[in-house]
Amino acid sequence: MERRLDIAPLSEWNIFDESRPILVAGPCSAESEIQIMETARGLKSLGVNVFRAGIWKPRTHPNTFEGVGAVGLKWMQRVKNELGMKICTEVASEKHIFDCMKFGVDMIWIGARTTANPFLVQEIADALKDTDIPVLVKNPVNPDMDLWIGALERLNQAGVKKLGVIHRGFSTSEKILYRNRPEWQIAIELRSRYPEMPFFCDPSHMGGDKKYIQEISQISLDLGLDGLMIESHCDPTCALSDAKQQLTPRELGEMMKKLIVRKPDSDSPEYKENIHQLRAKIDVIDESLMYLLGSRMDISRQIGEYKKRNNIAILQTSRWDSVLEKVIERGKEMGLPEKFVSTVFNAIHDASVQVQNEILAGE
Ligand code: PEP
Ligand code: MN
Questions:
Q1: What is the pTM of this model?
Q2: What CATH code is assigned to 269-361?
């Protein structure tokens, strides 16, 4: 059953200003007071107001750099006091939350490995009762939207209303261009289920390499997401974690200038009229598509009945292979990507097979 979430709008979070896109930036990890201050100053000069840094780092292997721990919160507090920036970090336990409270952390996020663990999420949710600190929840490492939603529900039930998400992509064992697979359809689905929930993308962890940050950021903006969390380090080559994916504050500034920010909507009467007409055309086509799908399904049913009477198996794979080949060929002539055509037709075929199975199973 789908439950609603009670979400406070970003304007009530007291973290972000009005400018769009919202940017949260800072190093993967706090490493030293000098590194924190130098990076924060560079970011502040770009107009960044929300500073991130990892204090406790969930690393894959032991005996690697696992974060400086609570001492780093002192350095972040300096960023807050001297530069007037809001500060945020990742938490994974009750103790982390208490430390954050002690040092005036303004916002926290839950990392991908932690979101995947309901015990930890519940512990964090319990520790957040009676606090007002905003929380961003990264997607779990595995592409499981329900696990992500479950974490949001646990926090919301504990009274966390300043609640948002960060899409950072999903682990995969396949060799892909990025470090984590975007699976944008999951983000789009979550966005449409909870349109009121602030939505961020983390192009640094999704891309895993600074060369992909611009393209991923642009896709996020084009999808209408609210903000970006991007890793930035004063000297990325020396970073103790995620060195490849961090930009210097200057590079981040250059990248941001290249992004095209589209408006969510327009008040212009001409725009409204044109878009209305185009959407009307789409609606007519959708209606025809539904009619065609319905007619096709009727015939599938007839075929099912006929096969049943003649005691014939439902699936003749060679027939389907040739249908698919034909439509893909036809799709190419019409400028439709092969993947799109095969996805649509396989879905249609699966539904037909299911209907015919039911017919065969019925008396
Ligand atoms: C991070 O933001 O530094 C981090 C560890 O991210 P993730 O949880 O997305 O891997
Ligand atoms: Mn990182």
A1: 0.83
A2: 1.20.59.10
